[in-house]
Amino acid sequence: MQVTSIEIWRALGGGALIGAGSAALLLLNGRIAGISGILGNLLQGSIGEQGWRIAFIVGLSLPAWIFGVDVTLLPHDMNWAIAAGLLVGMGTQLGSGCTSGHGICGLANLSVRSLAATLTFMTAAVLTVFIVRHGSTS
After folding, report:
1. Which is nearest to 22 in space by CA: 32, 30, 12, 14?
2. Which residue from 10, 138, 117, 34 is spatially nearest to 125, judged by alpha carbons?
């Protein structure tokens, strides 16, 4: 699989936007950008500060729709996507935070717990990709 320069720029731009959004949320609202927690509280209808949660989720997803979503990256079997989503949800509950909360904000705050969580989910991701791409095809 060949990576094109446009994909590299999209990844760099996306990473920069996530970092800028996380920094802005912390500086302007005093909140950590834990996406699963923000979305979870929004979907549960938690009473209180829903406005900033809606604005953050819309701001997070809007660039993907403006610049286009590469549908070839979406799984062909939605059962896998549903299973993956459930596993991610269980992991965020077990790890008391998600990849954005630990990997972006927690590491920036030099949190040892976030370092352990980030090393754990990155190791699991690397192993999963290796197994899926190099597993038996019989």
Report:
1. 32
2. 117
Which two structure tokens, joined as six digits, stand for 74? 């979406």
Instruction: Say if CB 34 and CB 21 are below 8 A apart.
Output: no
pLDDT tens-place string over residues 17-54: 888 888 888 898 888 888 888 887 888 876 677 788 88
In this prediction the pTM is 0.64
CA distance 56 to 4: 30
Residues 98 and 138: their CA atoms lie apart, in Å, by 35
User: By the 8 A CB rule, do 95 and 101 touch?
Assistant: no
Q: How far apart are CA 99 and CA 117, in angstroms?
A: 8
If you search the block for the tokens 């920069």, which residue do you land on? 16
98: which residues sit within 8 A by CB, 6+ positions away? 34, 35, 36, 37, 88, 91, 92
Neighbour-count burial of 25, counting CB atoms closer than 10 A to its CB (0-12 exposed, 13-18 middle, 19+ buried): buried
Nearest residue to 101 (alpha-carbon basis) of 87, 114, 86, 82: 114
